[in-house]
Known about the structure:
- This protein is α/β, with parallel strands linked by helices.
- Helices cover about 45% and strands about 15% of the residues.
- Strands 9, 10, 11, 12, 13, 14, 15, 16 and 17 form a nine-stranded mixed sheet that branches. The protein has an eight-stranded mixed sheet with strand order 1-8-7-3-4-5-6-2.
- α2 (about 60-75) crosses α6, α11 crosses α12 (about 360-380) and α12 packs across α13.
Amino acid sequence: MVKFVGTPASGGLTLAKIKIVNRRIAGFKRVVLAPHREKALFDAAIILAKDEIKTLMENSSKDHRDILNFQVMMLDDNGLKTMVYNHIDQREGAAHSVELAMEEYCARVKAINDGYLSLRTSDIRDALTRVIDILDGKNRERFKLTEPCVVVADEILPSDLASIDRKYAMGFITAAGSYHDHANIIARTMGIPSVCCVDSEILNPLNDSRQVALDGYTGEIFIVPNEATVALFHHKMKREQRDSVMLDKIRQSKVVAPDGQEVKIYANCNDPKDITLAINNGAEGIGLVRSEILFMSTVYDLSLASQIRFYSECIRAAKDKEITIRTFDIGADKPLERLQLEKEPNPALGMRGVRLMYTHREIFETQIEALLVAADRCGQINVMLPMVAVESDITDYFTMVEEVKERLLKEGIIARDRINWGVMIETPAAALISGSLAKYVNFFSIGTNDLTQYVMAADRINTNAARYFDSHHPAVVKLIEMVVQNANRYDIKVSVCGESAADFESAKTYIEKGVRCLSMAQNAMLPVKQYLLDAFAPN
C-alpha cells in the first residue's frame, strides 16, 4: 500500500480503479524557424484550435458550451497575440512563445485578486495548451472513460469534462490544479470526491488500473489499499450515507435565537446556476447576487435585454424565496476590460460602487431599468447599494430610480414597482449614520469584509496586515451592534453577508447582537446552521 496526501477539493469517499491520464512529454525537441514562419505557424494553430473547440461545443452541455465559448474568445484576444508575437521576435519558437505568454497572462489575471477571474486561468491554460499541442504535433484526443474509475491526471481541463462520461467518474486526483478549478467545482456539484496538488509520482504509469481508496475530506489517497484500509473505507462510506440523512434533517431545521425569533441562513451567489444549487442545498433565501459578474460573463452582457434575462433567471431560480441583488460593485480596485476606469493611487478609497453613478450614469440607468422590468415580470426582489458613505449617495441614486421608473410606467413597460431598496453597510460612515440612512430604505446588509477593512485600516488581501484584519475586534462589533439598533428603531431588516458570517463564533455573536439573517458561501451554510442549532438549543 502506498499513501499520498493532497489538498481536499471535493468531499466524498470512493474505492475504484485508477485511470492515469498523463499528457506530459519529457525531452521534447523543438526547431525554431525564422520569426515570420513561426508567426505563420502560430496563426494557423490558432485557427485549428478554434475549430477543434467549436467541434467540442456541438456535443457539450450548456455549462461546457459557455466555458468553451470563452476559450474561443480567448484565442481572439489581441493582447495575448501581441505577447506571443513579441516573444517570437526575440527568436523564440512559436510553441515556447505561447508557453511564455500563457504564464505572463495568467499571472496578470491572478494579480487582479478577483476570485472569478482567477477561476478563468484554467480555461486560459486549456485553450493555449491546445495551441501548444498543435504546434508540437501532439495528440489532442481527450480521454474517454468506459468503466467506473478514479481519474488521475496532471490537470483535468474544462475540455476534458466536455467529453467525459460522468457516470464513470468516481473521483478526481490531480498533481496540479486548485480548489477553484472547474473540474473541482463540478465535482462538488455532483458529489464526486476530488483531491488536488498531489505529488506527481502518482502519475507513474504503473499505478494505472490499480485500486485506490480516495478520501476527498482529508486529501488522503491509498494505492493498493490493504484489507484493513478497505474495511475502514467501507465503514466510512456507510457512515457517510447516514450523515447525508442527518444533513437533510439540518436543512429542514430552524435556528431560533434566544428571544424566540427565527434566524435565516442565506447564500451568496453569482448567477442563476449558483442560486439553483444553493436553494437545492438548503438556502432559505439568497442574501447576495453579485451583479458585476455581468462584466465578466461569456453568457450575458451589459445590454438591457441581457440584463433583464439575467435578473429574471436569478429570480426564477430562487423559487419564490427572498433574493437580494447588489447593484454594480465595481471600481478601479476591480479592473474590468469592459469598463475603462481611470487608475487611482488608492482605489479602495476612490471611485467605486454607487459612487460611479456620477461618472457612468448610463450604466446604472440601464441596470435600474433591467431590475424594474425583471421584478415586474418575475417577482419581488431586494436591491442594495454598495459603498454608501453619505446620505446623498442614496438620495441621488433614488432620484435616478424615480426618473427611470416614471418613464417605464408612462410607456407601459412595467405595471408596478416590485423592488425593496436597501443599503450595504460597509463603510464606517454608513454604520455611524445608519439611523439617518434607515429613513430611506427597507433593509440593511452589513458587508463585514469591507467594514472590517476600513475600520481597521487593513487591506484584506495584504498578508502582512492580516493580524489587523479582525472582524472580531470590539470596534467592528460595536459598529455592527449600532447598525442593528438603528435598524430596529426604524423597523427595517438587517443581515450580515460578509465572510465572517460563515465563522462559527462570529455568527453566534451577530445573533446575540440582534442580527436575524446571515448570508454566506453555500458550502458554509449547513456547518454554520448545525453549529447555531447546537449553540442555541434549549437547555
